[in-house]
Amino acid sequence: MTEEELEQSELIKQRIEKIEEIKKQGLNPYPVRFFPDSFSKNLIDSFDSILLEQASLAEKDPEAKLLHKLAGRVNSKRVMGKASFANIKDKQGNIQLYGSEKELGETYSLFKTMDIGDIIGIEGFLFKTKTGEISIHVLKFTPLAKCIRPLPVAKEKDGVVYDAFSDKEQRYRMRYVDLVVNDSVRETFITRSKIIQEVRNFLVKENFLEVETPMLHPIAGGAAAKPFITHHNTLDMQLYLRIAPELYLKRLIVGGLDRVFEVNRNFRNEGISIKHNPEFTMLELYMAYGDMETMLKLTENLITHVAISIGKGLKFLYGENQIDLTPPWNRKTYVEIIKEYSGIDFSKIKTLDEAKSEAKKIHVKADDKVSIWKVADEVFSEKVEPNLIQPIFITDFPKELSPLAKSREDNPSYVERFEPYIVGREIGNAFSELNDPFDQKERFEEQVKSREAGDDEAFMMDHDYIRALEYGMPPTGGLGIGIDRLVMLLTNSPSIRDTILFPQLRNES
C-alpha cells in the first residue's frame, strides 16, 4: 500500500469514527428528511431586502429572527475555539456559515469537527461579518450525510494548478465525484440539459410531434453501423439494439404523422474515441412535404436558435478557433471538396484499383475497401474532414453511400443529401427521403450484396419497411443531429466523454 493509500485509509477510519460520535449524541447520521427553504445565491442577492424585513420584524419583537434553512456540502472550515466558520456549497453557489458553542450547545462539537464534503443542514439568520461577507449565523445544525472518502483537491506544481482529477479516466469513472469538485463539469451538463430543452422548444414551435420508437429492433437498419446483438428468450429471436430510429420514424410519416422527432439513444458496436461513444444521443426528425433544402434551412435555424437561447451567441471560441455560426453557411459538393483537399476527382475514376492507387499516392490506406466510393469516403475522412472548421454543408453524396436518400433528378448517380460539419466533425446527416418502394428495394438488395462481400456495416433487407412504403409515403425531408457533438461544440469540450455523464469504459480491473 502506498503512502497516499495509507493516508486515505486512516482518514476514512477517522471519518467512520465521527459517525459513531453523531450517534452518541442521539442523532441519526443519515436522517430520513431535511427540507431546505432557501438557497445561497437567492439569499445573497436578496440580502438588503431581507435585512429590511428583519428590521421590521424586530420592531415588534427584538428577539425575533428571520430564519432560513439551507443544505449543502461543506467545502471549507475555520475552527476558532468556541466559534467556527465554514462554507457550504448548494445548487446555486457558496455561502459562509458562522456557528458558536453558545447557540449550538452539544451539537457544536459536531459542527467544528465537520469534514470537507460532509452534507449538512442548517437553520439560521443572515448577517454581514466585519469583513463585509454575507453569512448565516447558525442556530440549528443537522448532519445529513457523512463524506467518508476524502474528496480530491486541486494540486499546484511549478506554479500550475492542476485539476482535482488529474486522471481523466477516473473523472469519467467517478463522475459523481467529478461533479462535486469541478464546477465547470457541472456547468457543462447543466448546459447540455438546456441544449436538449431548446431543441425540443424549437421543434414544438415548428409543429413537430415528439414520439418514441423501439430500442430493440428485429433488423438493424437506418444507418451503416455494426449493431449490438441480444436475444429475447420468450420470443426466441435475435434482436439488435437500435443503430438509428429512422425506419420507424418514417413509418409514422406513412401513417399520417407528418412532422415527428425523437431525442433518444442509439447504440453502435464500434470504436471509442474523442468523437465516438458506443451509446450516444441523437435527434432525428422527419417532415412530410419537405426535402434536402428544407432540412438545410431547418438545420441552420435550429442550431443558431439553440446557440442564442443558451447564451452562447453565434460567434465564440472552440479551442483555438473562432467559430461563426451566422447564416447562411458555406456549402460544397462531396466530390468537389475531396478534389480540393486531396487532388483526386472521384467522378472520373472508373475502377476500384485506380481508386486505391490514387488513395495510396496521398498516403491513405484503402486496401480493404470494396468499392470506389468506399475509398472516396476514406479519403474524405482523412484528408477533408479535419479541415472543415467553420460551418459548412457537404452536399450531393454518391448514391452508393446513401441507400435511403432520393436521387438527384439531374444526375441519378448522386443523391439529395447533406452533412453539416463544424470544427472538423460531422454533426448531422439529412436528405430528401427515398419514398419509391421499388427503388428502395433495389438499393437494399445492393446493400445485401455488399454485406455478403464483407461489408458488415451495410444495410440489411427490411421487407416490412418496403411494405410500409407500398402504402405510400409523401415526399419527405429527414434530419439527424448528434446531440453529444452539438454539446461538445457549444461547451468547448474536446472529447465526447466530457459531454456524456457516464461514458463507456473498460472494466476497472
Protein described:
The protein is built from 16 helices and 21 strands. It is α+β, with helices and mostly antiparallel strands. The strands form 5 sheets. Strands 8, 12, 13, 16, 17, 18, 19, 20 and 21 form a 9-stranded mixed sheet that branches. Strands 1-2-3-5-4 form a 5-stranded mixed beta barrel. The two termini are 17 Å apart. The relative contact order is 0.09.
In CATH terms, what is the fold-level topology of the largest domain? Answer: BirA Bifunctional Protein, domain 2
Secondary-structure-based class equals alpha+beta
Averaged pLDDT: 93
Total of domains: 3
Strand fraction: 15-25%
CATH C-level class of the largest domain is: Alpha Beta
Give the radius of gyration: 29 Å
List the total number of helices: 16
- Distance linking N and C termini: 17 Å
User: What is the CATH superfamily of the largest domain?
Assistant: Bira Bifunctional Protein, Domain 2
Morphology call:
elongated
Q: How many DSSP-defined strands?
A: 21
Proportion of helical residues = 25-40%
Low-confidence stretches: none
Largest sheet: 9 strands, mixed
Q: Which architecture of the largest domain would the CATH scheme give at its second level? A: 2-Layer Sandwich
